[in-house]
Amino acid sequence: GIQVEQSPPDLILQEGANSTLRCNFSDSVNNLQWFHQNPWGQLINLFYIPSGTKQNGRLSATTVATERYSLLYISSSQTTDSGVYFCAVYSGAGSYQLTFGKGTKLSVIP
Amino acid sequence: SAVISQKPSRDICQRGTSLTIQCQVDSQVTMMFWYRQQPGQSLTLIATANQGSEATYESGFVIDKFPISRPNLTFSTLTVSNMSPEDSSIYLCSVERGVGFTEAFFGQGTRLTVV
Fold first, then answer.
1. What would the pLDDT profile of B17-26 be if each residue is shown by its tens digit?
2. Which residues of A touch B113 (CB under 8 A)?
């Protein structure tokens, strides 16, 4: 099946710093999503981004499907950005199963 | 978006018992999905639940351990049976919106601890 790799696995930032999270996938995909899992375990939808670039406030994402990667940018980080960021893809061929990466654990310190 | 209500949000259970998790969606959906997230790990799909048919289980998950009901197009339950400490995880239900490969939304999760 499709492989999804995220980097870095862990990231510690000072409040106000910027960061880039990366998601590589091993095969062509029909969809790609970024999620933020808060400390209570809830998964929050950040972006649905099979291709192109989107922005939402301090967050933006870019997917280059032909090169099989996606990037999530966090600018001016805040302590509330802490948590785990997951990238997930559908592999296609009639599969509705989302395959998740292992996540990037972000800690923003004051 | 989708409004998904999942309950309980957390529970502590004795080994050997069973827990049923409920998932209610604000509108009709064809498929509902159940995921498990073991401590410190990523999410793994347990099964896909279609209304009117048996759930489809992924490799490593069996119906006797994780029976699923799907009585209508807005509701599903997942039961974790004969629990052991290894079942301690977050369990999440999910739905998709639209046609084809579209955006997935998740319930708030059920944090299960088995003692």
1. 999 999 999 9
2. none
Cα torsion B34, B37, B43, B46: sign: negative
Burial group, residue B39, by CB count within 10 angstroms (0-12, 13-18, 19+): exposed
Look at the alpha carbons of B6, B9, B10, B14 in this order and tell me if their dihedral is positive or negative: negative
Mean pLDDT of all residues in A56-70: 96
Question: Which range (A96-105, B19-28, B96-105) has the least confidence?
Answer: B96-105
Structure tokens at B41: 């790990």
Judged by CB atoms closer than 8 Å, whether chains meet at A48 and B90 is answered as no
Q: How many CB pairs under 8 A join A and B?
A: 57
User: In the beta sheet, which residues pair with residue A88?
Assistant: A33, A100
Taking contacts as CB-CB distances below 8 angstroms, the residues of chain B near A45 are 1, 103-106
Burial of A50 (0-12, 13-18, 19+ CB in 10 A): middle
- For residue A25, give Cα distances in angstroms to A7, A17, A31, B21, B59: 12, 27, 11, 32, 21
pLDDT in tens, B59-92: 999 999 999 999 999 999 999 999 999 999 999 9
Spatial separation of the C-alpha atoms in residues B50 and A23, rounded to whole Å: 31
Check B45 against A101: CB less than 8 A apart: no
Tell me what the pLDDT averaged over chain A comes to: 93
CA distance A17 to A74: 8
Contact of A39 with A33, CB cutoff 8 Å = no
